[in-house]
Amino acid sequence: MSKILVIGDSCTDIFQYGVCERLSPEAAVPIFKPTYLTTTGGMAINVAENVGALGVEYDLITNDFRPAKTRYVEEQSNHLLLRIDVNDRVETIEWKVLDEIKFNEYDAVIISDYNKGYIYEDHIEFISKRHNVVFLDSKKQLGDWVENINFLKINKNEFLQNWSDTVKFKGDLIVTLGKDGAHLNKFKRFSIDNEHNVRDLSGAGDTFLAALAVKYLENKNIEEAITFANKCSAWVVTQKGVVAVNLDKI
Prior knowledge:
With 250 residues, this protein is of the alpha/beta class. Helix content is 24%, strand content 33%. The protein is built from six helices and twelve strands.
């Protein structure tokens, strides 16, 4: 059985659901009445939990102190009213932790870099030189430190903002396009087969990244892996909040 190491920043995702039945008499804002609350692990935790949901064993290395992202959501429409992020920076991984990783015990490494301070460019470069199957999703401005990454996954906005053709990169570039699927190496398009009723985009990129790695390990075919990742993330956005993929539903 395959085993994956997930490294990256994590948070706590809090969804406070409620109802809005009238406007405040003090200002033109809705009055929010809380009904129920959900709390889950987000970012790298969500990536790891999706790996596990897809039937693959994993280890997770992440920050101990977790910032909270609290979303206030109207439960009937699933409309996001407000998001509050508290303590948005995290502690940095110690080099000792990286030095002690037995990389040969893993079939792949996933780096989930939300750019909250847990891992930096030199950490990512270090990891990419110690394993030959590394998947990276990074919110950083991309540079030559990604040269040895095998699979770089970013969304369309990140590609436009953070990518440059001058970057030294020898791997495969996967750009996710939301409802339009994904591109491989800026040319080949992978569409999503069926339209889905989008309820919540939270965590969809995490699911895509996890599914991409899991499927690639299964058959070493990145095109089939992208198609599978599209299916998994397309299902996740039909659910409320941050959830792991359910194989029985895709």
